[in-house]
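Teaching note: in complex prediction, the entire set of molecules is handled at once rather than each chain in isolation. The prompt given to students was simply: 'Predict the structure of this complex.' The entities are:
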Amino acid sequence: MSDNLLELDHVTMQFGGVTALDDVTFAIRRGEILGLIGPNGAGKTTCFNVMTGVYAATSGAVLFDGASLAGLKRFQITKRGIARTFQNIRLFPDMTAIENVMVGADANHHTSVGGALLGLPRHHREEAEGRNTAMELLTFMGIADRAGDAARNLPYGYQRRLEIARALATKPQLLCLDEPAAGFTPAEKVELMDLIRKIRDQGYTVLLIEHDMSLVMGVTDRIVVLDFGKVIATGSPSEVQDNPAVVAAYLGVPDDDA
Amino acid sequence: MRDWLIYRTFWDLTVTGVALGSIYALVALGYTLVYGVLRLINFAHSEIFMIGTFASLITATNVLGLPMLEAGEYPYRTGFQLVLILLACLLGSMVLSGAGAVALERAAYRPLRGSGDQFGAVVLAFVSAFVVGLIFFDTPKSNLIFGIIGTGPIAWMYLNIFRRGRQAPRLAFLISAIGASTAITEAVAIWGPRDREQYQTPRVLEKKTLFKLFGTDIRIDYVIVIIGALLMMTALLLFVNRTRLGRGVRAVAQDVETAKILGVNVDFVILITFLLGGVMAGGAAMMFTLVYDQSKFNIGFLLGVKSFTAAVLGGIGNLKGALLGGIVLGLAENYGSALFGGQWKDVIAFVLLLVVLMFRPTGLLGESLAKARV
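The expected output is the structure of the full assembly:
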């Protein structure tokens, strides 16, 4: 078993004449929190979609857990162990919080249609297991008190955390968070940082795509910086912060108000 | 005076209306389920119902060997034997209708979604070869042989086309639905032993009065239909609300892309949805033959249109709406016929739909399979 959970090897992605990713090479190591940052239009989302098999790279190789994801369907990729959350929350609005998480947990269950219809013991056991797992995850995320409420009636912060709980329910090896702190207050961001660390400590590998620099700097082990589809820097938060290319491309000129 | 007819026969009309409405409701569930997950009106669903009525007929005559008449009398059965016969017919209808619905989805719709599989390729290849054979041969047997020989290479060609994974535009699904509907109807009309004539089904249940309600005789077959429909409806709601697959169905209905990312096998969920709709239509078909003792190649058409109306009336995509829509429609038809005369029966159904949609564009209970849980 290699140290790298996911590897991008000289990946290029072109849409017509536009090169969205240009010879991108980096890896996500097992058990780390990797930040993927870059200005708007740098190719973060494309990179993400190539990693999760939504797009097939024009050239280069993507290896997850040592194997290519090419040709797999989305649900199969999830079963291989990649889970994600969305920048704009995408819960099942009319299901309860716990049901949302159970949909994720269902991916690992095997009862047949007949089994469910006949109410076989295995079906009941898996339903109970799914419910327990879901409840544990809701507790872990600190939102168990609203487990029975429809997802659309939950407060914003709960919805964000519910999305993470649901992604964890698929038992992923790699959890991808797409701007999980969007719309959060500073206090909520601190809570989220603690949560992300806790998730990592449970043995998950986390990929964090984020705009908020304080969050990225505070929680990640390593950072990959993209600009115009190229990797311009890789390293620890402090290394990246001091990198002149990054400062120029991403952090921009120092703030006048500062 | 017709006006008096409705007063004298009000309760009779109510009971038969609810029974007829229950049959509409069960068929309407198939339209509503498929619409909920695919946003597709499966116009071939009426043929799934028709297949169910024939399955019931075949089970009774060919499998159980029941005659149409016994010494000039209907072959009435009683007690345990009757229950077994009815259950066997129900099972036959449900299995054949369910299988038919699944085959329909895999051959007529799935290839259009860009995920066609071997089954679809083989069915389509056989049909293609068979139709080409019609040009050269004039006996069904030689056609069949030509069809079987042609299946292999044509299926291989189709599979290669499927592999491109192209998604067809929305209208293509509608055309496919109408085509499949016509193909199934005509196949039964052309190759059925009685061609386009009506078929009688053996009348094993003596339609006795079970009890009296407000001075009206309540017949046993109507009671069976109403209770049967309620049981099936309850089973369906439990399945959708309480099981893993039901949760998958609701997840796909609410957001397909997110469901995929959470590991839901969407093609499988769609298959299950068609299966559930088919099984419900099969149950409806068996009960239909129980009340009307007949079937015909085009029996699904008007009933299908009415059931679709019921689904829209209740709010398409809404399971409870299908039940309500079916019963409202059944009652309206019966009361309407008594008021205006039987020839207006079908007109009333559609006028009712128009009026309801004017005031409640999403139907009585509103659209959404997603909100099935209350």
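Point out the following to students. The two ends of chain A are 47 Å apart (CA to CA). DSSP finds ten helices and ten strands in chain A.
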